[in-house]
Amino acid sequence: MSLLVILLVLMIIGAIIAIETTNLLSSIVCVGAVGFLISIAFLFLGAPDLAITQLVVEALCLIILIRATINRDLTSVTGDREFFGLTVTVAMVLVLAIAGIKMFGEFPALGQPVMDRMANTPSAAYLAHGTEQTGAKNVVTALMLGYRNYDALGQVAILFCSVIGALAILRRPARKDQKEKDAEADAI
Amino acid sequence: MIDSPHREGMDLVAKSVTGWLKGFIFLFGVYLVINSHATPGGGFAGGIIIACAFILFTLAEGQHAGMKLLSKNVAAKLASAGALIFLGAVIAVICWKDVFVKDSLGAGRTGILYFLGENAMPIYDIALALVVSMLLFTIFSITAAVHVTVKDGQRKMVHRRRR
Amino acid sequence: MVYALCLVLIAIGLYGVVVKKNVVKIVISMAIIEYGINVLLVLIGYRSGGCAPILQQGMTAATLAAHAVDPLPQALVLTTIMINLGMLILMVAICIRLYERYGTFDITEMRRLKG
Question: Most C-beta atoms within 10 A of its C-beta, which of A106, B36, C63, C80?
């Protein structure tokens, strides 16, 4: 358990560095480090599927972020927002802290999953009957593509929407629009 | 190779290493997709690793070689094909409830249908990997090909800067 | 205790989103919030001394149900990680467009140069 605490403290340090440093490239690399530590934490929490996925998604996020900023000449920025933003943030953080204290007053200690505490959660049934009903030894895959397949369908839809949205945003304006704009400028 | 003109992309060391590595990375991604029922992995992680193999090739050899390997039209069509396969398998399971279960089509089935085992999970895996890899390669090509240049006093977004 | 550290991670990301002026910093802070949420969800389903929910050699389904960690939060977090990737792609596309339109990543400048 202390290993998990050490990992989380390292993540918090990495997050603070990522947010506070002035050079954009180093903050992107720090986010990469935080993601890598999260992948190690997933390994210790018994989720190898998530560790692999988090690692490769992290690498892809780094590639996309660096692609956005590497050719732009503004790599450092100074100063913060004005006072109003700071007070709003402190208020929000206080509310989050109070909610958190109330929340893990209700939670039992770490190490007892939900399916032990509540009577008829579906997880116990998934673990007990998953292999014989779907033929997959990996219960997480059996869940995602066997019992809860609509989640994967929605996931494909979301990925399509985000890529089509990004393509639509980054599109070159059509030739006809440019000619119309030139005609307007000439008319004026 | 000593006298070849300077092509776009990285230098010779990176190109040689990538030429060897991209096959292995692609193979590992395919392995992760196909064996997702027995080992951790799944369609998402395998699909992203396959996309990474293509991205590595594009980074090392330059944008033109990447476009020639997998143009945007081909990638879009493959992604749509993967999504349609997924949807078709879901609808097939809804309409005819036992179409992919092991012994519903009679005894003695061999070949590709036996690979399916108890239900349609390999189909979902392969379709998912197809969709994810092609979509991510498309978005990488788009963000790689877009440059903001200053053209007669005005910022413009230019696609695929030519060297 | 560990939940408190996760909440601190989420709060740090929230601070970054609200206070920072650079658009790319805001995107990075969103990513940190998402990481914190993922870790919190997986921590809920953790069983101390438990094994991963994969049926291995010589294990029956009953022992798996007694020893494994909870697989349901893991399946949900797997989808969440991919959704975060999609969100990041869209936000980065918007950042590129903003830079092309205004010439800077600074949002206070964008507020001033209208039109």
Answer: B36
